[in-house]
Amino acid sequence: MLIDDLMGARDGDPFANLGLIPNKEINGFTLRAWLPYASKVVAKDIGNTRVIKELECKSKEGLFEAEFPNTDKPFHYSFDVSYPDAVVNVIDPYQFHDEAYTGLAEMKLKASNLYRTLGAHLMTIEVDGVKVSGVKFAVYAPSAKCCSVIGDFNFWDGRRHPMERSLDGHWVLFVPGIKPGDRYKYELKDPLGNRLPHKADPVGFYSEQYPSFASIVVDQTTYTWHDAEWIKSQLNNKVDQPISIYEMHFASWKRKDDGYSYSYREMADELIPYLKKLGYTHVEFMPISEFPFDGSWGYQPVGLFSPTSRFGKVDDLKYLIDQLHQNGIGVIVDWVPAHFPSDSHGLARFDGTPLYEYEDPRRGWHPDWNSYIYDFGRDTVRQFLVASALCWLDYFHVDGLRVDAVASMLYWDYSRKAGQWIPNVDGGNHNYEAISLLRWFNEEVYKNYPHAMTIAEESTAFPGVSRPTYVGGLGFGFKWNMGWMHDSLQYMSLDPIYRQYHHSEMTFSMIYAYDENFILSLSHDECTHGKHSMLYKMPGDEWQQAANLRAFMGYMYAHPGKKLNFMGTEFAQTGEWNHDSQLQWWLLQFDKHKGQQQLIADLNKFYRSEKAMYDADYDKIGFFWLDHSDYQHSIFSWIRRDKNGKNPVYVVSNMTPTPYQNYRMGVLEPGKYQIVLNTDDKKYWGSGYNTGAPEHQSEDVPWQYVTYSVVFNLPPLATVYLKKIG
Description:
The chain has 726 residues and is an alpha+beta fold. The chain contains 17 helices and 34 strands. The chain has an eight-stranded parallel β-barrel. A seven-stranded antiparallel beta sheet has the order 1-2-5-4-3-6-7. It has a six-stranded antiparallel beta sheet with strand order 27-28-29-34-31-32.
């Protein structure tokens, strides 16, 4: 019976049972309303100006009806509803069938249509000269037996607003009267009719924190952007631009005196002057899409379309990004399409079935992170993921997406032993479905947002990660150089006396440097879980540790590839990163740490001002070894040039505490040369070792495979940059 279905929140076809229902017996319509706990219902015109008819109570549970015989077309109406303690006027949602279905027919035409259709969207429609405002809800749950939207507006009662199921498995309803800020969830029943835990909106744009995790209605049109000039300036080829990225964890970068993190708006005042002072081109936020567990650092997201509410509202984040842009700083956000957590309010078994995840745990469960893996072969999941990426570029104007854990997506046997994974159709370990998804994602990003970039965290030698899809690549703009990171940090951690036996660990990266568009990344992963801070990875006493780090930074900035440093490295933080605290800002009272900070600022300034340091990062003309085999002294020397082979910068790194008097270094042209940056300078807390005269005249002495050479004193544990004067 209908009343039983309504009482049990099991009505899957409410538009057939509620509202104005054609009635052939009376040659008109039956108006049926379902309003639990109501004692009286009076139908009025949509403008609430005249009474049409009082409805008869058909069930004390809240079912009311009225007949309208000899009525040839439907009409719009409202209800005056009497409750024991109040009389309220409501506009019945079950008269807006077509409005509820808005966008569904076009949703699959392009990926971005998904977030413009699903979720909670504010709508204003005009009927009979009256404007009716509310929210259109749409959620995909094809296997659910029924679905209701619940929230502040209906006392979180799943009986009050049953949704209509489309032929494709979307549940829809337009509910008048709902406003921005109203909270909601979905109440679903699985295929057997069992009620599931209340679910947050998979395409929700804002969310509450623990314990409710409710979705919140948002108006995405209220913020006015002022970054058009910035976006126009980014219509360039990123591979020949200087890119120096400051990676940060929002909650633990800096905290207020009361221990709370800065809000999005407060962060604008704190972060922007700091980044400008240090000269970074971009900031990369570790995941700020909504996530339930702080300890995941954001890498277990449940709201791929929703910025976390920990730090403020949606418009507050837009303000922060807008301000960064107006100050010439790009914004990259971490995007996590590889896996999602099992929290009951999230995507896991969303409609009682594995809707978003692979059903077989050998494909659908990640043993490393105890999380579900998206079904990359399912069209609805693929559109969902790509749409979420585009949403951040669209609504939030981000400049780049760094894709987390790409390697875990590419291989079926990632972090699995024999027997724990299922081969592909060819018997191999490549996940063709994930590969196809990543290619489509990159194509969509660059087609729709040509100013943006995509970055892969990919830790294997998978070919063509940063090569275009039309030549068989994955289509990313850049790839983190995890091999360089591992090898160089391994080398730097050694006592200098042993470095001569590991010389190739610093030179090996140039063998494959042009295989991909690499970013040299010293990320958060290298500063936690017992791996020590960058400073304390270095051997030796206090001075030597700092000198090693400075020399390494000089080496890194002169090595081909864009740059990324995790927060805290810029002032040589001593402790490991702690996500529950803040950086050790107090260290800046000491010269050692102020010196490191000044070095990073100077490196960024020099890097951005010299084309030779960046515009031929991925062209062999931009790099020339002078001496890569001086393992006995642990010295490396090379030349950086621009893409025309001009304006060379000469680089030499001495990775031992032994200084060298009258060190000879090859140069390409005769003339006077000057040291333009020296990581051993006293202003960086270096030793200030005397490098010789302010200018060094070249000599007609062939050296290191070039025609001329200069002589100067090479400081200990230092990287030195030289340029020709004039």
